[in-house]
Write a structure and sequence with these properties.
The protein has helices at 6-19, 25-31, 40-55, 114-128, 143-150, 167-173, 198-207, and strands at 59-61, 72-79, 90-97, 100-107, 136-140, 177-181, 210-212. It is of the alpha/beta class and 215 residues long.
Length: 215
């Protein structure tokens, strides 16, 4: 593997993912974990990903005029303990402005508050340039997580949750953001937590206004 340019390939693909391709965020997140000691199976996946990029070279984010007003929306999802090496969960979020994707990430999180912190930063930026007036709405398919954030009552089952994780509850309680339930089939952040069937992936791309000139 010393002669295989694994790190260079991942760096190039990562640049593309950060710029315009949220659809490969999960793939890059998984492949970058083996930068220190990759194997031939990992290299084969990299080549498969390059073939997908070659096929979808004319795919990208489309931005259009805000016909229904300026709305900042976030979508968050988590695949519980799906990492076979350390049993950590993969968390993904995407944010859209006027229906087009502007921010995204897929990772093994250090904290569960990444999406909320990103929403606060985006909101602050848009308020500074007088581009946003309403609240930020963050959608999740976890009904239990939403209720835990909205309900300030202490429960025995939540006593072991660390104080830092109650940051979301404080932000929701102040009315800075709204948390809403969204069925899994309509949550585009799902593509950042696992491999999806073709039709489900296409549905996620449509929601984020990621189009292909092949269509």
């Amino acid at each position: 593997m010393k002669s295989v340019p694994y790190a260079n390939a991942i760096g190039s693909i990562m640049y593309l993912m950060v710029s315009t391709r949220p659809d490969i965020a999960y793939d890059v997140s998984c492949l970058s974990r083996y930068m220190a000691n990759p194997g031939m199976p990992h290299w084969e996946v990299v080549k498969w990903l390059m073939r997908y990029l070659r096929w979808s070279v004319r795919t990208g984010i489309e931005f259009s005029q805000c016909e229904k007003g300026i709305v900042l929306c976030g979508y968050v999802n988590s695949n519980y303990a799906n990492n076979r090496d350390n049993r950590k969960s993969t968390t993904s979020y995407v944010f859209t402005l006027c229906g087009s994707c502007i921010s995204w990430k897929s990772q093994l999180p250090k904290y569960s508050t990444e999406a909320v912190k990103e929403s606060l930063w985006l909101k602050g930026l848009l308020l500074e340039i007088a581009f946003l007036k309403g609240k930020v709405v963050v959608f999740s398919d976890s009904q239990s997580g939403i209720q835990l954030c909205k309900n300030p009552v202490f429960h025995d089952r939540t006593k072991n949750i660390e104080i830092k994780y109650h940051f979301i509850r404080k932000v929701v309680g102040k009315g800075v953001i709204d948390l809403e339930k969204l069925p899994s089939e309509f949550n585009p952040a799902d593509m950042g937590t696992k491999c999806l069937p073709v039709e489900k992936l296409r549905s996620c791309l449509r929601i984020l206004n990621i189009v292909s000139k092949h269509d």
